[in-house]
Write a structure and sequence with these properties.
0% strand
Length: 177
């Protein structure tokens, strides 16, 4: 009786572990990542403060969004332009200088993922089509803490609807490999 109960518990735990591993592997390459994966950023970056009080724009921290497929993430040198010396008594600000002392980049975690078979270019969408960041990513400029998951769920339906509304190509091979 006791053995059956232990075996049943072990089976349940095993199923949960296998399902979690499969979801983790599969999820990193699909929209499932946007739904189930929750991340915690190493620094509680306040977008609202940096946009409204400092006057920063997306390009200040994501320098490649107009020129490359990937937008880029802020490097430690970008943060140190203002935070090499204490501006506030913030623990988050101190973390920046700690990463710098270690000679390390800030390990920002991605929250948006594209499936491996999708070809996407920030340059094409931001520069050529003049699509604002908030259309696909949500209004990050109003966030006082980093989100743990995407503000906008970027599904195929989301993209196709936008392509229809903007009279952009709906040819499958334009976006899929």
């Amino acid at each position: 009786m006791k053995v059956k109960r232990v075996m049943r518990k072990a089976l349940v735990v095993g199923v949960i572990l296998v399902a979690g591993a499969l979801l983790g592997w599969y999820g990193r390459h699909t929209v499932a990542a946007q739904i189930f994966v929750q991340v915690r950023q190493p620094i509680a970056f306040n977008h609202k403060k940096h946009v409204e009080q400092v006057g920063m724009e997306c390009i200040d921290c994501h320098p490649y969004y107009k020129t490359q497929a990937n937008s880029g993430r802020p490097g430690i040198d970008t943060c140190l332009l203002c935070h090499d010396q204490a501006q506030t008594k913030s623990k988050e600000e101190e973390k920046i200088r700690e990463y710098a002392k270690q000679g390390a980049e800030i390990p920002w975690q991605r929250i948006y993922f594209m499936s491996d078979h999708v070809r996407f270019s920030h340059q094409l969408h931001a520069q050529k089509a003049q699509i604002q960041c908030r259309v696909c990513h949500g209004d990050f400029a109003q966030l006082e803490t980093p989100p743990s998951r995407p503000l906008v769920l970027q599904t195929m339906e989301f993209c196709v609807n936008c392509h229809k509304e903007t009279n952009s190509s709906e040819d499958c091979l334009a976006c899929h490999r």
